[in-house]
């Protein structure tokens, strides 16, 4: 169902349909892994009735990643203890208030990788969030539940976050559209942080036209007065099936990067995963050190391991990656003097089976997503179908959330 389809329903019917779809489209274990809380039918009906009639997202149900506050609901961040040490909010986060003002209906909250610190949809406390179409494979991201509920067509829109790829990866794995905004935006300002210098808010939709509506309501769209100039970068280390599909998908948007641009980008992007691990890791340790000693046993094993490594990051390690970080950012600055966007694969492979959610594959994913994260760049992710029936994604990296490229790329997707 599209935004328009939902807008045709009466409040009681819309509330009933959200609940019905959640029950019908996810089994009990996956509902627990994907959905933290879903409002009951009477509360949902009241929320639909209260939606502003003139809002651009009037009557569109959505689910919110459980890093953001909804009034009267605890915020758990996928953890076993955060709701106990953090007060229950009296009002919603900025993005929730913006959605309600636009007429959208926040119907509840989605689960995530614990404290948003992962790309593989795993959670030791609530269960691993699987791809709705491929049981046993991950939905991806830390925004795992948000991607899953949109991919399963429970709601047409869900809010997530992206620090190192947590919208781009699940959008690609689940075959849906995703948008990652910019750090320090008001939309992310009051979320539970992972690494504040890198955290961004964003969202998922099933269609380009719905993404266009969401972008218009939350960010604003600017029309392009000319055909944007971009290029496609084929990164090393991408599985052949994914590389071929992304190359084909990019062909309608941009030519391949010329040899000089390609070589410089690949060289400067090569250490991105390592740089990100150090700089984001040290920020995350600053957030968690106030809890780590007292709550250590209540973190899941994956997050315990990342906390231990983050705690051990030294000033020498930071100093060692700073020149490469500066060079990468300078390369992006030079790139946007000549181009309006860069297209590149969002993931190196389709959705992973549990056994393949390894540190090595995490680094392969970060190799594609960390370059934009380090520079704080917004990214539109466009789904790319694979011959296997699974999916990948194409990152459209821009230099501003209101870049005309976003509107142009979505229009191109709508035209097919």
Please describe what this structure looks like.
This protein starts with a helix and ends with a helix. It contains 16 helices and twelve strands. The radius of gyration is 20 Å and the shape is globular. The strands form two sheets. Strands 1-3-2-6-8-7-11-12-10-9 form a ten-stranded mixed beta sheet, sandwiched between helices. Strands 4-5 form a two-stranded antiparallel ribbon. It has a single domain, classed as Amidase signature (AS) enzymes. The chain is 45% helix and 14% strand. It is α+β, with helices and mostly antiparallel strands and 416 residues long. Strand 11 and strand 12 form a beta hairpin.
Produce the secondary structure layout:
Blueprint: H1 3-7, H2 11-25, H3 28-34, E1 35-38, H4 41-50, E2 61-65, H5 82-85, H6 94-101, E3 105-110, E4 130-131, E5 134-138, H7 144-151, E6 157-161, H8 168-174, E7 177-180, E8 201-205, H9 208-218, E9 230-233, H10 240-251, H11 259-269, H12 272-295, H13 301-311, H14 315-338, E10 341-345, H15 359-375, E11 379-385, E12 391-397, H16 404-415
Parallel strand pairs: 2-3, 2-6, 9-10
Antiparallel strand pairs: 1-3, 4-5, 6-8, 7-8, 7-11, 10-12, 11-12
Helix pairs in contact: 2-4, 9-16, 11-14, 12-13, 12-14, 12-15
């Amino acid at each position: 169902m599209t935004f328009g389809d939902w807008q045709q329903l009466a409040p009681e019917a819309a509330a009933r349909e959200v609940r019905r779809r959640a029950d019908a489209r996810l089994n009990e274990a996956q509902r627990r892994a994907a959905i933290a809380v879903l409002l009951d039918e009477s509360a949902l009906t009241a929320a639909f009735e209260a939606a502003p009639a003139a809002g651009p997202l009037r009557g569109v149900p959505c689910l919110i990643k459980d890093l953001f506050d909804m009034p009267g609901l605890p915020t758990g961040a996928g953890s076993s203890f955060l709701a106990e040490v953090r007060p229950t909010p009296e009002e919603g986060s900025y993005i929730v208030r913006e959605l309600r003002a636009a007429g959208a209906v926040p119907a509840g909250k989605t689960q995530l990788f614990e404290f948003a610190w992962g790309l593989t949809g795993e959670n030791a406390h609530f269960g691993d969030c699987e791809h709705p179409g491929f049981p046993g494979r991950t939905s991806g991201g830390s925004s795992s539940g948000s991607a899953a509920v949109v991919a399963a067509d429970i709601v047409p829109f869900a809010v997530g976050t992206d620090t190192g790829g947590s919208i781009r990866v699940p959008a690609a794995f689940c075959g849906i559209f995703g948008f990652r905004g910019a750090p320090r935006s008001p939309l992310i300002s009051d979320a539970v942080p992972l690494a504040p210098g890198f955290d961004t808010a964003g969202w998922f939709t099933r269609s380009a036209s719905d993404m266009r509506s969401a972008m218009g309501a939350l960010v604003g769209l600017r029309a392009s007065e000319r055909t944007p100039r971009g290029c496609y970068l084929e990164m090393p280390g991408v599985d052949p099936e994914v590389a071929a599909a992304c190359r084909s998908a990019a062909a309608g948007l941009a030519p391949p990067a010329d040899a000089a641009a390609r070589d410089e980008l690949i060289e400067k992007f090569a250490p991105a995963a390592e740089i990100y691990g150090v700089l984001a890791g040290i920020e995350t340790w600053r957030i968690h050190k106030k809890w780590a000693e007292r709550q250590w046993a209540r973190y899941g094993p994956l997050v315990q391991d990342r906390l231990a490594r983050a705690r051990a990051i030294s000033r020498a390690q930071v100093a060692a990656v700073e020149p490469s970080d500066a060079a990468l950012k300078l390369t992006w600055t030079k790139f946007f003097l000549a181009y309006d966007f860069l297209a590149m694969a969002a993931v190196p492979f389709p959705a992973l089976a549990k056994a393949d959610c390894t540190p090595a594959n995490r680094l392969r994913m970060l190799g594609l997503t960390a370059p934009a994260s380090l520079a704080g760049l917004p990214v539109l992710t466009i789904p790319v179908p694979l011959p296997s029936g699974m999916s990948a994604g194409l990152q459209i990296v821009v230099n501003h959330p209101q870049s005309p490229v976003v509107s142009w790329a979505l229009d191109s997707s709508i035209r097919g």
